[in-house]
């Protein structure tokens, strides 16, 4: 029972640190959001653009997982 409680507490701390770090990093990422034109897709002679934010967010998550040290 004690080990289970310890495991839950460690998981809570880990998730708390991850969320805190990701919140700060996401705010920084969204300030510098880039849009990439997609020339192949056009509608009424107006090219679409896509945000590079999902790729940056993926890299941020990987980095966050590496940085959390229990």
UniProtKB/TrEMBL annotation:
Superkingdom, natural source: Eukaryota
InterPro entries recorded: EXOC2/Sec5
One GO term (biological process): protein transport
GO cellular component terms, semicolon-separated: exocyst
Keyword terms of this UniProt record: Exocytosis, Protein transport, Transport
Family listed: Belongs to the SEC5 family.
Task performed by this protein: Component of the exocyst complex involved in the docking of exocytic vesicles with fusion sites on the plasma membrane.
Assembly and interaction partners: Component of the exocyst complex.
Protein name: Exocyst complex component SEC5
Organism: Nymphaea colorata (pocket water lily)
């Amino acid at each position: 029972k004690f080990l289970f409680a310890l495991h839950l507490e460690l998981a809570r701390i880990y998730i708390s640190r991850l969320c805190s770090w990701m919140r700060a990093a996401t705010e920084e990422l969204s300030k510098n959001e880039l849009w990439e034109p997609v020339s192949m897709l056009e509608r009424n002679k107006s090219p679409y653009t896509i945000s590079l934010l999902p790729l940056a967010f993926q890299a941020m998550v990987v980095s966050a997982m590496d940085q959390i040290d229990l």
